[in-house]
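hiii, so i know i said id send this last week but things got crazy w the move. better late than never?? heres the sequnce for the chain we talked about at the cafe, plus the structure i predicted for it. fair warning i was half asleep when i ran it
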Amino acid sequence: MVDIRETLAERARSHGDFEHVAKMSQNLKHMMKSTRAFQDLDFYMAESLEQMAMKIARILSGNARELDHWRDIAGYATLAVRQIERDEMDRQMTETLGAARNIYNTVDQPENEDEQQSA
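okay and structure toks below
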């Protein structure tokens, strides 16, 4: 089993000093959260950006050539894109179903009293 001290030493080389990373990450997140636009984000968008902020802090504090940092940022962006695409598909389906219901209801309903009496 790997000693936690070895793991922490390894992470310090690739991720940077924890205190420095934490401070930078929190500052980035604070700046993002202070914008009106951030307040309007869906929860998954906000989380993706916050995770990216932490990865950016690691890049700037540790080894900028650590591929996992960059892959993780791409991964969080991809997760947000996928959810946005799902949300858009759901919105389009809801609109399509609503339009179909309106057409169905219009076809079934007589337009005036004469049609209602003859039916």
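btw Helices lie at 4-15, 18-33, 36-39, 43-61, 67-108, 113-118. thought thatd interest u
miss u guys!!
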